[in-house]
Amino acid sequence: MASLLLATDLDRTLIPNGPQPESPGAREALARLVAHPGVTLAYVSGRHRELVEDAMAEWSLPRPDYVIGDVGTTIWRVPGQGDWTRDADWEAAIGADWSGRTGGELAERLSDLPGLVLQPPDRQNRHKLSWFLPGDADTPSLATEIHQRLAALGVETRLVFSIDETADQGLLDVLPARASKLHAIEALVARLGIATDDTVFCGDSGNDLEVLVSALPAVLVANATGPVRQAARDGAGAAGTTAQLYCASGGFLGMNGCYAAGMLEGIAHFHPWTEAAMTAKERSA
Questions:
Q1: Distance CA 57, CA 60 (A)
Q2: Parallel, antiparallel, or unpaired: how do β-strands 39-44 and 66-69 relate?
Q3: Is-contact 208 9, C-beta < 8 A?
Q4: Cα 183 to chain center, whole Å?
Q5: Torsion of CA 246, 247, 250, 254, to 10 degrees
Q6: Whole-angstrom distance, CA of residue 35 vs CA of residue 29
Q7: What is the pTM of this model?
Q8: What domains can be seen in the chain, in order of their start residue?
Q9: Listing from the earlier edge strand, what are the strands of the sheet with 169-176?
Q10: Tell me: the pLDDT tens digits for 152-175?
Q11: Residue 259, exposed/middle/buried by CB under 10 A (0-12, 13-18, 19+)?
Q12: How confident is the model over 192-229, as pLDDT tens digits?
């Protein structure tokens, strides 16, 4: 039986909450695909658990097998009807980069930096410190200052800068060095014993770029902004992973390539067998 680990971002990738229209039937086709017994579904999101559950209810999303949340700082196993199980081993591994310090302690060290405003408490966790910043912030200078201040505490960090395009709002996540969407997906791939080529990641934004340009097969949906699309292509070219990046453009199954339609297009590019699972209902009707 064919196997596939489908790891997907939520907002403006699977969830059609951007300005572009959603192709009718796209999410239904994706639901048919992930119901296939050979497919394992993982949501990969900056959202925390409660917001992932809210999204699943609001948008009638398929129940995943795993959730990588909080920008890669948490991994949850999601059993059929039981409680979500949090991966304590993953959090212990990434926590070593912060030498036992919490996000709250690091916030005190950075609180006087101009332009940084802490995001609400529900967007923070022990290993994720999230800030708002101006959309035109000098991110290279800011990154240098943050790394210097935290290195003095013996803390190794990863900084993830992104833009909320809908609000023109800059965002910054301060994470342990080993915490990222990519590292969490790689940990899940290793745990499941799935080959890299049998994994597909789907994303749309700047905070997905590390995965989009990695050795993992990846899909950039058509509603991604021009700068993100260019950065993904440039990054994949520099990394020698152009063959692992698929940029959806529309036309597949008569759809526009945005959101779930782009996911379907890219997944079928890497794994042609999946098209039969996507369209099974239409053929049997």
A1: 5
A2: parallel
A3: yes
A4: 11
A5: 20
A6: 10
A7: 0.89
A8: 4-91+179-284 (3.40.50.1000), 100-176 (3.90.1070.10)
A9: 117-118, 129-133, 169-176, 157-164
A10: 999 999 998 887 766 778 999 999
A11: buried
A12: 999 999 999 999 998 899 999 999 999 999 999 999 99
Query: Which amino acid, residue 233?
Result: R
Q: Tokens for 38, please give them.
A: 């050979």
| CA atoms lying within 13 Å on the CB side of residue 19 | 6
